[in-house]
């Protein structure tokens, strides 16, 4: 029979707890209410002074309790099999079965369907003995409760056993998942091996595979005494398509370009996608003239390609850098990549949609090398407050009176020298550090104005800012908040920019 849950039955409480609502308990990831929903099968032996274990469980809020008397045949195994799908715990009363009860426990435990189902044996106190306890555990029981059964002893053991069953189920499911993974291991390994050396989107070689091929090309160049080349292709204005049409359309465009490039190269050439919108092609055993012709052909193919999306047609170009791999030069793969990237940058700098071959005399290359030395110095100056301001008087021509000052930035070197802005500002603009400098200047100058004595309350300061500052949406809130915090009048500040900077975004600058 099934013991129904009586919602009015008082739950078990510690002595003195009264009839207050039982608090929600958390058992790992399972709360107590979840535990009470577990299926429990109770095999009881009625007799003198019989107290129903199933009834105790019902009073403690366990809802799915099935109770049946201890049979004298195999009907119990059959009954348990019917409940196996929803069975989480078996309480087996063998108080009147003796040794046969342990044999029944063993048979239940040996059933494949119940191998992970905890069994609690309920036994007569008269047969308490170490040998019996040892035999019960060997038969498959995980716990023993001796009669007379006390609710305060039973319920904690039931909860503990149900938690054990939940853990076993989790481990079983995890084991099945592992077995499924192992069954697919060869497919997965093959896929992983492919992904290690290929770009997932386009199917081209990735940067890792290209670097390996470059190392091989360097070895061949030295051993076989021939010249190879690396073409570095950067799509011009790809961001327009990506931002306008979305990443899905952008990905489709990148795959289309990959297919266009495939058609133009030989099968022995290595074509790789090395970043979002950048490709590279390694061509072994070639000449500078052939490399230039191939690069120009690829540039023209991309320039003539038209891409359609949402009834719109897009046309972009490509800047291509060329780096030669010569037998007499001992270069690493990363150095060759760096040269081709620098040559590509030169092509972009000179107008985009162009081809440029690396040369040690490239202007941009010298600038980049110089920037490498200056960037840490500039960062250090910003972080450690080694920037400073010089204030140059502004004289009214008619009255010859000082009507204000112009704020001029300088930087302190480590050896105490003062570094003028023409040495570090262009690099800061190129390397993305100018924003921090602009904002530092604004904060510093307004602070200086706020600290001036009242006698100088009409003093004005002109602040020089980079062209990038007026394209930054954070500039206006910064100035307004700083003026409000210090009480400085906005009329005391004038921002100075070049005409080119103002005209490049007139509406934004005017605002």
Structure notes:
The protein is an alpha/beta fold. The protein has 3 domains: 2-181, Rossmann fold (3-Layer(aba) Sandwich), CATH 3.40.50; 196-359, Alpha-Beta Plaits (2-Layer Sandwich); 369-510, TIM Barrel (Alpha-Beta Barrel). The protein is 47% helix and 19% strand. The protein has 18 helices and 20 strands. The chain has helices spanning 32-36, 53-59, 75-83, 99-110, 130-138, 151-183, 185-197, 207-224, 238-245, 247-264, 288-304, 333-349, 363-383, 421-430, 434-451, 475-486, 499-504, 506-510, and strands at residues 2-3, 26-27, 30-31, 40-44, 65-69, 89-93, 119-123, 143-146, 228-235, 270-275, 278-283, 307-309, 312-314, 318-325, 355-357, 387-395, 402-412, 418-419, 461-464, 493-496. Strands 1-5-4-6-7-8 form a 6-stranded mixed sheet, sandwiched between helices. Strands 10-11-9-14-15 form a 5-stranded mixed sheet, sandwiched between helices. Strands 16, 17, 18, 19 and 20 form a 5-stranded mixed sheet that branches. Strand 2 (26-27) and strand 3 (30-31) form a beta hairpin. Helix 8 (207-224) packs across helix 12 and helix 15 runs parallel beside helix 16 (475-486). The model is unreliable at 1-28 and 499-504 (pLDDT under 50).
What would you say about this model in short?
With 511 residues, the chain is an alpha/beta fold.
For the record, what is the CATH homologous superfamily label of the largest domain?
A: Response regulator
Q: Count all strands and give the number.
A: 20
Spans where pLDDT lies below 50 across 5 or more residues: 1-28, 499-504
Number of spatially distinct domains: 3
